Amino acid sequence: MHFTQLILTNLGLIIAAMSLLWLVSIRVKDASIVDLCWGLGFVIVAWATAFQTGASDLRAIMLLALTTLWGLRLSGYLLWRNYGKGEDKRYQEMRDKHGGRFWWVSFFTVFLLQGLLMWFISLVVQSGMFHAGKLGIGFFGWLGFAVWCVGFFFESVGDFQMARFKARPDTEGEVMDRGLWRYTRHPNYFGDFCIWWGLFLLAATAQSWWTIGSPLLMSFLLLKVSGVSMLESDIEDRRPKYAQYKRETNAFFPWFPADGA
User: Where are the transmembrane segments (predicted)?
Assistant: First the structure.
């Protein structure tokens, strides 16, 4: 099998899966399900790649396992967090804006777009697994595994700490500034950042340096599009204390609070 055949097959699989998910969203009148399946989509791509390549090499097995663990945790967490809460306000606003056209507009601007992003970002996993047997893991590969572990810790622990904070009845209008959130305003996004740079380093020594666009795109999305920028666009209106929190705490990369406390 040629690599081009592999990635085009996976692209077709993603488009088919996202099209099916879109049809389900029309049925249930909730486009938010696309977010719940974001991590799961990468798991599907990784397993489809393993099925086509055999995935018998240690690097391929590691890439498959790490992607699966990350994707299932993320989708499971989002499903638990959003269950029963209805459609996300972003999609509600789109639905109000486009009216009767939303059903097909959502296919291109939400489902197909996310599918294409998923395919491009997952190229690092697809290439790393395809070329896995060509070279040993080496220093950069094990460094990538270590970076991935740091990322998984920040993302999973950060989500857990925020969930506990929101579950308390006395936090209305308050700001989460404890635990990992004391050192970065977005430990979960920083964790996701490390996850994908870790996977890149693990895959890169298997003739996959060219896939650097994958973690770069994910970093751009986390920092400028669907991550930090979007979340902080109106948060001070809902949580006035956030302004002081911003002055004292790094937005992304963890560091000690500015007040030295």
Answer: 6-24, 36-55, 61-80, 101-125, 137-158, 189-206
Residues 18 and 78 in one domain: yes
Do 83 and 162 reside in the same domain of the chain? no
| Distance (Å, whole) CA 18 – CA 56 | 29
Structure tokens of 232?
Answer: 């902080």
Specify whether 161 is located in the same domain as 258: yes
How many Cβ atoms from other residues are within 10 Å of residue 213's Cβ?
Answer: 13
Number of domains in the chain: 2
pTM above 0.70, yes or no: yes
Residues 6+ apart with CB under 8 A from 122: 10, 42, 45, 46, 67, 214
Query: Is the predicted pLDDT of residue 214 greater than 80, yes or no?
Result: yes
* Together in a domain, 144 and 50: no
Q: Which of 58-72, 117-131, 214-228, 233-247 has the lowest mean pLDDT?
A: 233-247
Phi-psi region of 249 (alpha: psi -120 to 50; beta: other; left: phi over 0): beta
pLDDT at 209 over 80: yes
End-to-end CA distance of the chain: 57
Q: How far apart are CA 199 and CA 137, in angstroms?
A: 12
105: its two tokens:
């507009």
Range of the domain at 21: 1-125
Residue 224 backbone phi and psi in degrees, to 5: -120, -15
Both tokens of residue 74? 């993320």
pLDDT of residue 134: 64
Last residue of one domain, picked from the residues 125, 147, 166:
125
